[in-house]
């Protein structure tokens, strides 16, 4: 029997975020067994907590989709850190944890205010590969009926590749009707996860609305993607297009598929991107595998 958590990530209350399964005591599991468990949970990602291989780190995590292991993802990192703290597996040092994963050693900051705990992970920085050009017919067709925003669409790379497109306003994002077959083809032909659209949202309780369609890995729409949001933040910073967003802003994601996730983004003085939010423990028990 192994301790097992199911966590709702980027959720200010139960049921509005992105679910994650976390399995502890995983040192004796093979990669094949981990992959089988991840396929069985049938969640976007399942993580496995192991002792670190370096004294600098507080724990090590392996991250699996239902199909393969990945080096890093945002919501699994935040959710695993939440579970590590809840299980007492590691104690914070100077208000932070240090996560070891295939992407390296990544700090996770902990902020506690009254009964609210927010965790933020420093995300491997993405870079602009290129802006969309006349040769990108698929992307142009996907976005043909949508009003464009401030920045031109671009593809970015940060370990995982995304197409990013800013739309004119919140309504354009909320009412966007994705051509999933075309986005899947775009992902396949450009070796990317798919398309992420966003818009700035002045005069509401959040600063940006985001929708992500990672059809390259078989997910129709992501309810809350830390990595995609970090890619947007890095893109806007590199393009000098943050504008009134400044170096801290709040994102709304997931309402179009029945969720209501809240993500907090920060670009620090070194131009590193941090993504964070609250998490909720919804299931805690043991898994027999």
Chart the SSEs and their pairings.
Layout: E1 2-9, E2 18-23, H1 31-41, E3 46-50, E4 59-64, E5 69-70, H2 74-87, E6 96-101, E7 104-113, E8 116-123, E9 127-131, H3 137-142, E10 154-157, E11 161-166, H4 170-174, H5 180-189, E12 195-200, E13 208-213, H6 226-238, E14 248-253, E15 261-267, E16 273-277, E17 279-287
Parallel strand pairs: 2-3, 4-6, 11-12, 13-14
Antiparallel strand pairs: 1-2, 1-17, 3-4, 4-5, 6-7, 7-8, 8-16, 9-10, 10-11, 12-13, 14-15, 15-16
Task: Name a few traits of the molecule.
289 residues, Diaminopimelate Epimerase, Chain A, domain 1, alpha+beta, 17-stranded mixed beta sheet
Short description:
The protein has 6 helices and 17 strands. It is of the alpha+beta class and 289 residues long.
Could you explain the architecture of this structure?
The chain has helices spanning 31-41, 74-87, 137-142, 170-174, 180-189, 226-238, and strands at 2-9, 18-23, 46-50, 59-64, 69-70, 96-101, 104-113, 116-123, 127-131, 154-157, 161-166, 195-200, 208-213, 248-253, 261-267, 273-277, 279-287. The protein is built from six helices and 17 strands. Helix content is 20%, strand content 36%. It has a 17-stranded mixed beta sheet that branches.
Overall tally of domains: 2
| pLDDT averaged residue by residue | 97
What is the CATH top level name of the largest domain?
Answer: Alpha Beta
Model regions low in confidence, pLDDT < 50 over at least 5 residues:
none
Helix-strand category: alpha+beta
Q: How many helical stretches?
A: 6
Find the CATH superfamily of the largest domain.
Diaminopimelate Epimerase, Chain A, domain 1
Radius of gyration, in angstroms, nearest whole number: 18 Å
Number of strands: 17
State the CATH topology of the largest domain. Answer: Diaminopimelate Epimerase, Chain A, domain 1
Order of helices and strands: EEHEEEHEEEEHEEHHEEHEEEE
The percent range for helix content is: 10-25%
């Amino acid at each position: 029997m192994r301790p097992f958590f199911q966590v709702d990530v980027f959720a200010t209350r139960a049921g509005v975020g992105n679910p994650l399964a976390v399995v502890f005591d995983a040192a004796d599991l093979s990669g094949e067994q981990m992959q089988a468990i991840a396929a069985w949970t049938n969640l976007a990602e399942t993580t496995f907590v192991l002792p670190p291989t370096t004294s600098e780190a507080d724990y090590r995590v392996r991250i699996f989709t239902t199909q393969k292991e990945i080096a890093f993802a945002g919501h699994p990192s935040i959710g695993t850190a939440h579970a590590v703290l809840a299980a007492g597996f590691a104690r914070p040092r100077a208000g932070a944890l240090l996560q070891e994963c295939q992407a390296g050693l990544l700090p996770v900051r902990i902020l506690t205010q009254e009964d609210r705990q927010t965790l933020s992970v420093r995300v491997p920085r993405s870079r602009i590969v290129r802006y969309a050009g006349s040769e990108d017919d698929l992307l142009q067709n996907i976005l043909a009926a949508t009003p464009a925003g401030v920045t031109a669409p671009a593809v970015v790379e940060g370990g995982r590749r995304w197409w990013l497109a800013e739309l004119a306003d919140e309504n354009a994002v909320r009412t966007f009707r994705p051509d999933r077959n075309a986005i899947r083809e775009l992902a396949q032909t450009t070796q990317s996860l798919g398309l992420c659209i966003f818009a700035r949202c002045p005069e509401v309780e959040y600063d940006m609305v985001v929708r992500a369609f990672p059809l390259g890995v078989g997910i129709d729409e992501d309810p809350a993607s830390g990595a995609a949001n970090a890619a947007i933040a890095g893109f806007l910073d590199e393009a000098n297009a943050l504008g009134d967003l400044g170096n801290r802003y709040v994102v709304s994601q997931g309402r179009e598929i029945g969720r209501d996730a809240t993500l907090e983004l920060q670009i620090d003085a070194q131009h590193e991107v941090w993504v964070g939010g609250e998490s909720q423990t919804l299931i805690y028990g043991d898994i027999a595998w």
